[in-house]
């Protein structure tokens, strides 16, 4: 698999143009042989979060849209406080704000409490909560318990479940 | 024209001449010789030609002999984006660009046309649309050759045969019937198609180029599957179907499906004044068919999957790739037919040589060949360290244009799935790519649709069709320019 340098979409090797954004992919192809999403490439640590990082309670944006290509579902969530990502369990009545139970979350390796998305002085941030199968952001595996800035259009994998995130 | 002498050329006949024509030709030629000319070598040749062609069994043997001697009636040229692929643990993709040409010296034989025009006369056609349509039909009637057969059917809530299948003997009578068409009622395409196919069947189908052209400006309700089933049956009887949509209210996916069984054309006519052009263009192509009912056997090694097929020439049209055969339609005149295939290779762990059979089947009317097969196997090598070679330029260009067309299709899919945000992002990307390609008008349209998507969460029906058929036409034009360059 190769990654489009412009939009980050995963493309088959040998594709001439990115199916998502239309970019010509041939320049990238020679160095991009067979990098699987969960291979070495994905284990490289992301840049560290800035030193002056702190969470804020009044978000600068109102809603976030999560698009799940697997099911073609779309979830729009209000951002007030934190958005927990995970699965609802039958034994608890605690529902995460982004509930991936119906997205085959269990089969695709989403933990009950997998990650959170919150507002900070550096904008929206994603944090893995020591999930079993990990969280990937644009194919970087995130270290647990560390906030990482999100941008609109980012691709997140909770376990094996791919989610696109959009906000203004 | 080929300079070879055949029994056909001695008698001055096309190779598909009817038995009566053989007798008539012989009678007219033999009259030139005085009765004492028995030993004249010319006379002997004439007699020999007549004796062979007048005997169905001997003629069949002779036909197969000249078919073997003649150069292959189809010249196939195949380009691949890669011929060597690396061993990889993930799927890979590659492209095939196939161009099929008639030989340079092919005899241009015009086979008579058996044409049925199936015209929408629903209320919405009233005014300019119907006026231009009538003018276009009149021009067609005037242009057709005397040996052609035409029939005209109109439909609204039901179908009416305006002109039953007839030779072009009294053009004025046909034209005055066309002029009497009035608009009223709804749009039920199936009845019109059925009546049209029935009219075509009045003529011996094996001796003609049979084609139905549908012109509509509306949606049909409840009978879509009937229409598609009918188009499949018609294709089995060598009846081709082309479909033109007028305005912005018709169902583009339906028209694409309707023509796919026979490899016909579907197109969007935005401005009624263009009806004339579209119709004439189509009929010109139909008159000069070198190969008919061309189809590709979808036979692939198990490691390969066909993802997508798209015809580029003589017109750009997505191909229906779900069956065991891909219908490619006809090779019109001296022009090429070309198509692009996108294939994926399953993950591989060993070196491997794969052969893609690429078996084409076609009828070559000019040589009396039916269901002739042409094998053009292509080899792919899966190896540990393939050398990188740049893909052919023509192929890259075609894929680039096709990718834009597909980006537009995906916008629609995302909207259908409720992902308006993704759809808007896609449309924005498409705008950029269209601009880069110098397609300013289409880029402006894409930009307007992006704004519309963000604002109201939907596309405008006319904007959508403009983009769909605009990007489609762009593919055809790019490829046509390329093939002109190479001549």
The general outline of chain A is globular
Mean of residue pLDDT of chain A? 80
Q: Show the largest interface.
A: A-B, 28 and 36 residues
CATH topological fold name of the largest domain in chain B: Rossmann fold
Helices and strands of chain A: which structural class? mainly beta
First and last CA, distance of chain A: 30 Å
**CATH class of the largest domain in chain B, anyone?**
Alpha Beta
Order of helices and strands of chain A: EEHHEEEEEEEEEEE
Our count of helices of chain B gives 14
* Assembly state: heterodimer
Q: Could you tell me how far the N terminus lies from the C terminus of chain B, measured between alpha carbons in angstroms?
A: 19 Å
Shape of chain B: flat
CATH class of the largest domain in chain A: Mainly Beta
What structural category characterises the helix and strand content of chain B?
alpha/beta
Please identify which CATH superfamily of the largest domain in chain B we are dealing with: von Willebrand factor, type A domain
Strand order of the largest sheet of chain A: 4-3-13-12-9-10
Q: Strand share of the residues of chain B?
A: 25-35%
- Do you know the CATH architecture of the largest domain in chain A? Sandwich
CATH fold-level assignment of the largest domain in chain A? Tumour Suppressor Smad4
- Low-confidence segments of chain A, given as residue ranges, are 28-43
Q: In which order are the strands of the major sheet of chain B placed?
A: 6-5-4-7-8-9
